[in-house]
Model the fold of this input.
Amino acid sequence: MTTPVLSLRDVRLTLGNNAGRTEILKGIDLNVTTGETVGLTGPSGSGKSSLLMLMGGLDQATGGAVHALGQDLGAMNEDRLARFRRDHMGVVFQSFHLIPTMTAVENVATPLELAGVSDAFDRATQELEAVGLSHRLHHYPSQMSGGEQQRVALARAAAPRPEILLADEPTGNLDGATGAAIMDLLFGLRDRHGSTLILVTHASELAERCDRVVHIQDGRLA
Amino acid sequence: MIQNVAMAWRLTRRELRGGIKGFRIFLACLILGVAAIAAVGSVREALRAGLSSQGAVLLGGDASISFTYRFADEAELAMITDAAEDVSVVADFRSMIVLGEERALTQVKAVDDAYPLYGTAKLDPPMPMATALDGMNGQPGIVMDDLLIDRLGLQVGDSLMLGEIPFVLMAELVSEPDNATGGFGLGPRSILRRSALEGSSLLSEGTLFDSHYRLRLPEGGIGPAYGALMPDLEPNGARWQDARDGAPGMRRLIDRLGAFLVLVGLAGLAVGGVGISAAIRSYLDEKTGTIAILRALGAERRVIFLTYFLQIGILTLLGLTLGVILGALIPALLVPVIAQSLPVSAELTVYPRPLAEAALYGVLAALLFTLWPLARTEEVKAADLFRDAALGSNRLPRPLFIGLCVAILALLVWVAARFSGMAPLAMWSFIGLGGAFATLVLTGIAVKYAARWLGHRQILRRVPTLRMAFTAVGGPGGEAGAVVLSLGLGLAVLAAVGQIDNNLRGAISRDLPDVAPSFFVVDIQPDQIDAVKARLDGDPFVSRIDTAPMLRGVITQINDRPAREVAGGHWVIRGDRGLTYSAQPTRTTVVEGEWWPEDYQGPPQISFAAEEAREMGIGIGDQLTINILGRDITGEITSLREVDFSQAGMGFILTMNPSALAGAPHSYIATIYSKQEGEAAILRDLGNAHPNITLISVRDAITQITGLMGQVSAAITYGALATLVTGFVVLMGAAAAGERARTYEAAILKTLGATRAGILVNFAIRSAVLGAAAGLVAVVAGGIAGWAVTHYIMEESFAFDLPNALAIVSGGVLATVLAGLFFAYRPLSAKPARVLRARE
Done:
């Protein structure tokens, strides 16, 4: 039997403030195996992005357990989670989330630098060349189009060769043609590095490119 | 138009319903700036009022007529007595208190039974002045300042000698009412009865003393008394002062210090202006959407402008009101603290004029710093609703607004020049501020580019934390400009004050002792001068002795016209000056004209100080009339000399040929240059051999002068600190404004694997880089200002004060790091998912 890269057991997430508490995830059980590509689909507000965040340790579950590569993310503090992501995960967001004060190559080099990679900038340059941005190395995010920014974000996520690649609606802010190109790049990178890919998407045609599609409805797996 | 205003007012009211949260920095900057200026002005008014109401007490009478080296003769005294209801005569001179082997210089006030005409002297143990001066056990009494009592280790009841006369110490002099000099004399004060000095040589003809005839006059009697007395007495060298301006020196000090502090306060307001401008810019950036909607709904740009102008106007009014109230309250806290350093008690009340002055400065500064960002509201179009637009464009506003800003700035400069009464200083202050502003803006840009350049270098790529910090400083939307400007200006003012203070004190306490004599000796009688020289000639510690005959005189006429008409208010003709005679020019260089022959016996000739002659507009061939001890001597200027006062040696503005003055009663003065080891023996031997002469230790005088300067400099430093506090508030505002961006950045960095400690170090490094840059510019700007003041105003050589510079740079680093770390909590503690998803 293949070891799960990600294992979620009865995962719950409740967010609350003075106005009241909202149950976002209501007991999710899910295993993702090495090298698998999983598409998370569901209507807006169903909890799919929240689930992805819990998988990446970007937020912590209020119930249940999230294990990644055999480690309990719930038992880690903020800094251990950061180091875990640095060593094992890459994340791509819908809004790119590039650091506005850094150029493209600096953005891509940052996770490599944090991991202590000595040739961080050479590798960052190669990654940007791989996504077709060799001419944009020293441009700031504000000087690039949305599609170009997302390609930088892809290169940044893939540069440390992560075992797990998490993508939260990576084409959500892009037009159809650009989005399709980004998805080709994403799957290409995944194939190149052999990462496990979890992809949150609204688009059924994108989900269909995954090995498995998991549908979420009202905080539960449908 | 009225319709537009009414519409704008309705919109303003709706916008302000949201509260004033976004205006905290705006209000803090305005309140601090206005309060500082209002407080300085109020303290100045309170002290002025104190001076004015206590004029007669401080002066010792409704009017005072003074003579130098002599008392009024019988005819003069008769005139004075006739003109006044009551007269008190006081003689003021320096002498030495002797107690066994111990000697100490004292400033003596020899009084009569009528003293004091106004006010009361406070003694410890408490007793009437007359009882104290009566003395006991057949010895006359003396009261002394506690400094003197402590220095000599005296107890009440102890006997001591003043010159050759024994006195008994009856009490400590806690305060004297007629202390218009603020207690500043070359020695601590002693008071005794003049009749006790009869028969001694302490007040004999030719010794250095001033006599003051204090007059009690009927109400409204000052003018008539002046008219009745001075036309006859002034030509005899008498000087007049009256209670309408009882302590002119103190008044000038208060006026000048007050004006200077207001200018420092304006610098604070300028620093606050940076915060005001940034706050308005940030507020209007957030309102871009609202403005675009209003434009889409048909609002004209003037309605939009008026809406935000009214909002800011209301908040300015709030800030001014709070600032003025605070400024009116601060003196109640401040005056008790500074009162100890002043001889005049302040009259605490609310003074409308300085409050109005501060409010006017506040209005002009608020207008100046808000109009520019406000003008940008006109650029917002309805189409901006569909774009991610902000007001941060770099386009200039319409010429109308640029013209208005220039006009407001000109008005501000004019108002400051007029109110300060020091127009050139006000102008230079604004030029300096403008220069510092421009330098800091350029530095902010330079730091940004330098950081960007450094961040891209290979060497920094080996240290990721440094690389990230530098790229953050150099990247788009960085805080470099705001931080360097807000902190730099405050630090520059502090650095300038520090450099000037250090050079001013240094010129006196550091450099002067190396070149100045050890002692000034005064009141050496002609029959004592040879003995004094004989004692010093054989002394191995003494390297040089200068002696000169010493008289004092008042220049009353120049070419038969009153001196004031020719030379205005030049200091040389204000009061009496020391003068001498000499057959040859000694230790001086004649730069124009010819010195008289050694055996010259003709009409009086004068050699005058060249620089002062040039300032007074006189030269070779001019006739000067000098009143010496009531006798007029007229002489012709036949040569001009270089006189260097900077080394505290002997320097006379006016020297005459010997035959012109040798007949007048006079004493000698001497300057003794000795090693410190020999000073005690000189003091003892000369004091024992010649009890009447007075030795003034230059070292002690320097200590006293630097102490007084320390108080002035402390007042200015406090003013500069107020500027720095405003700068820190602006800095905190900039840090708070950057908090959102840092929270976002921290969330991304955490996603990529950065730890909280790593992020914190990253934030601290960039704060430190900006703080150091602000500090360095401040040190350079402060250094230039310090050099300019030292070189051009003080005419001293400038020495850069490195410890002060290091303290400024460290202070800059510390302030920015503290402000940065204060706003680091939220970025570090926020969960990345929440922050990033909020931006989706």
